[in-house]
């Protein structure tokens, strides 16, 4: 049996797209309110014990690192430590990155090339298309990994309005870099349950979606054809639970409790909903919008409730933002008053300095004139004295 295991890494990311699956985490919404964060409750040793007991028939275990950004420092250390553990298990690895990592965080891959099946680069058009420095970093990192002889591909989400740009991107990637672009259907923001974009797809649009992302009605739903897919929850209250599908998160095992039910299948129902079958329908740690959607009526009901709750959350966020703006406005007004006072004080001091400079200039010029005047007056005084003496002598003679 070949298994594909989505192994949990931290949800942290250096991009934080507004439509991210983990936007609740990034924005401190339920269940991560008040900045609360969780650690993974099970260790790598516990995972290995669970794997040895329940996946002993594995001819290959493909480990997928995604969900957060695998090459931010903390996640990169976790991935490296996992891969470098040597226990004889037939592991292969794949990563899904936003391509905006620092090269030093991914350099450990160069020694592990033979173990890496592929690395996908998701091109988040809505987040980076108008930021040339991020686009350059994306392509630089793509070539950095490709030059390690690691298979790479680029993925884009198909929004109808961007179809032309996406097709042009596919052409450039193929001709300039020799890299494939996989187009994935875009189900919507956050948990991706509203299917607004898909409802607007034409038959031609549907044909653009890569086969890897097509889940045909009535057939088993595998995230990667040929593998039995399981996902392990981590870094939340329910860390350790094993599930088969994010859209129908029925619990099929638990790492810490050493249990697993391999008899599950994931099917697409005629209305497009995903459903886990063959095991008890046990749930834990699900939001309303995480629960299985059996039919359109239920989906509409769930989405209406979600929309109401989300609207309430957004209004609360708006209120908080308005309060912060008001606080900043008050502080800004105070600063502007202080600024005007400072400008006035500077103007007064400038005038005083100019007046003082003029006084000093006048004082510097004054001694020269004062020195000349005494000479004239002295001569006049001496002349007057001599004249008086002459007159006195004449009077005596008479």
- Radius of gyration (CA) equals 39 Å
Give the mean pLDDT.
Answer: 82
Tell me, what is the CATH class of the largest domain?
Answer: Alpha Beta
How many distinct helices?
A: 10
CATH architecture of the largest domain: Alpha-Beta Barrel
Please state how the strands of the largest beta sheet are arranged side by side. Answer: 6-5-4-3-2-1-7-8-9-10
- The number of strands is 12
Uncertain spans: 288-296
Instruction: Tell me the span between the first and last alpha carbons.
Output: 155 Å
Helix content: 40-55%
Shape: elongated
Structural class given helices, strands, pairing? alpha/beta
Could you say how many structural domains there are in total? Answer: 2
Proportion of β residues?
15-25%
Question: What is the H/E order?
Answer: EHHEHEHEHHEHEHHEEEEEEH
Protein described:
The chain has 398 residues and is α/β, with parallel strands linked by helices. It has two domains: 2-293, Alpha-Beta Barrel (TIM Barrel), CATH 3.20.20; 295-370. The protein has helices at 23-26, 44-54, 73-84, 103-106, 125-128, 132-146, 163-177, 196-199, 203-208, 296-397; strands spanning 2-8, 60-66, 91-97, 116-122, 152-158, 181-185, 228-232, 241-243, 251-254, 259-260, 265-268, 274-277. The strands form two sheets. It has a ten-stranded mixed sheet with strand order 6-5-4-3-2-1-7-8-9-10. A two-stranded antiparallel ribbon has the order 11-12. The chain starts with a strand and ends with a helix. The model is unreliable at 288-296 (pLDDT under 50).
């Amino acid at each position: 049996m070949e298994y594909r295991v989505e192994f949990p890494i931290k949800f942290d990311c250096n991009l934080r797209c507004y439509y991210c699956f983990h936007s609740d985490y990034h924005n401190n919404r339920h269940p991560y309110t008040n900045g609360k964060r969780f650690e993974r409750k099970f260790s790598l040793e516990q995972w290995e014990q669970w794997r040895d007991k329940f996946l002993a028939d594995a001819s290959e275990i493909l480990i997928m690192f995604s969900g957060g950004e695998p090459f931010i420092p903390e996640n990169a250390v976790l991935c490296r430590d996992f891969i470098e553990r040597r226990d004889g298990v037939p592991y292969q690895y794949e990563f899904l990155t936003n391509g905006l990592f620092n090269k030093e965080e991914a350099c450990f891959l160069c020694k592990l090339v033979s173990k890496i099946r592929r690395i996908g680069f998701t091109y988040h058009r809505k987040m980076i298309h108008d930021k040339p420095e991020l686009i350059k970093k994306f392509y630089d990192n793509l070539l950095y990994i490709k030059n390690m002889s690691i298979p790479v591909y680029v993925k884009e989400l198909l929004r109808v309005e961007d179809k032309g740009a996406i097709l042009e991107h596919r052409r450039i990637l193929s001709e300039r870099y020799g890299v494939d672009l996989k187009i994935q259907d875009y189900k919507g923001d956050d948990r991706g349950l509203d299917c607004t974009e898909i409802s607007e797809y034409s038959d031609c649009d549907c044909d653009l979606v890569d086969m890897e992302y097509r889940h045909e009605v009535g057939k088993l739903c595998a995230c990667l054809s040929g593998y039995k897919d399981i996902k392990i929850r981590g870094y939340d209250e329910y860390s350790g639970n094993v599930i088969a599908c994010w859209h129908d998160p029925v619990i099929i095992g638990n790492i810490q409790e050493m249990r697993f039910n391999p008899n599950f299948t994931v099917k697409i129902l005629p209305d497009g909903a995903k459903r886990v079958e063959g095991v008890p329908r046990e749930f834990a740690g699900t939001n309303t919008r995480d629960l299985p959607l059996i039919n359109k009526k239920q989906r509409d009901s769930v989405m209406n409730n979600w929309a109401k709750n989300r609207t309430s959350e957004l209004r609360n966020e708006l209120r908080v933002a308005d309060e912060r703006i008001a606080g900043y406005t008050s502080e800004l007004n105070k600063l502007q008053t202080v600024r005007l006072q400072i400008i006035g004080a500077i103007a007064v001091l400038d005038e005083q300095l100019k007046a003082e400079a003029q006084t000093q200039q006048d004082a510097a010029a004054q001694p020269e004139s004062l020195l000349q005047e005494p000479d004239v007056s002295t001569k006049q005084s001496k002349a007057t004295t001599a004249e008086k003496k002459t007159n006195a002598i004449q009077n005596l003679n008479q």
